[in-house]
Input
Amino acid sequence: MRRYVFAGNWKMNKTVSEAVALARALREGLEKEPTPHEVVVMPPFTALAEVGKALKGSPIVMGAQNMHWEREGAFTGEISPAMLRDVGCAYVILGHSERRHIFDETDERLSKKSRAAFDNGLIPMVCVGETLAERESNRTLEVVERQVERALRPLKPEEVARMVVSYEPVWAIGTGRVATPDQAEEVQAFLRKRIAISHGDDAAEAVRILYGGSVNPGNTPGIMIQADVDGVLVGGASLKAESFLGIVQYRQEENS
Ligand code: PGA
Output
């Protein structure tokens, strides 16, 4: 059976006490009904240390939503990969479209960050995705190809095999407008082919490719049935235990 990844990106939500309460509720939910899949939560920086403690000894792993590429130094306002490791992060989201579009994250910085993640023992979850204008002008594949190529360029095949790529069409994020399963599969199969060309067949087969953008418990089964969907990256629906558990407790056999 494939081991899927269910990742919750909490974005700029939750105080420390709210974040700990959500982490505990998820932990209890998964203790009652365990899942064979990988569950990842990504709280805001301020809550990482306490959520890390609340999840200690549980199967839920933690990630951060961004980082700087340097280990330490005069970079006011930034957080280093070593700091994320120190509080118990295993993953880090890189190149989320909100960072690309609101905070001018570039492909060049992203490639420094993906290298720095592995150099510091973190697994990057690299996000790619087209805007609505790019989709409507038939540039989707060209855009995601460029994004994935730049982010993965500094990585060795064995690193790519361990990482996560998340296809998140910008027009589907936070809009309630989810990509159709066929739209997701078309792009994700394409990404896997590009990765096979750049890093070899073994890396392409092992890399986990997620879909993100308006995922909820109702639309998860339709998305998950696709051959090149290895899980989901969830924003809004990961902020409540009930809806995130509804997504995580997805059963493959329910689909067939
Ligand atoms: P959403 O966000 O589920 O709220 O659309 C997804 C994401 O940005 O990762």
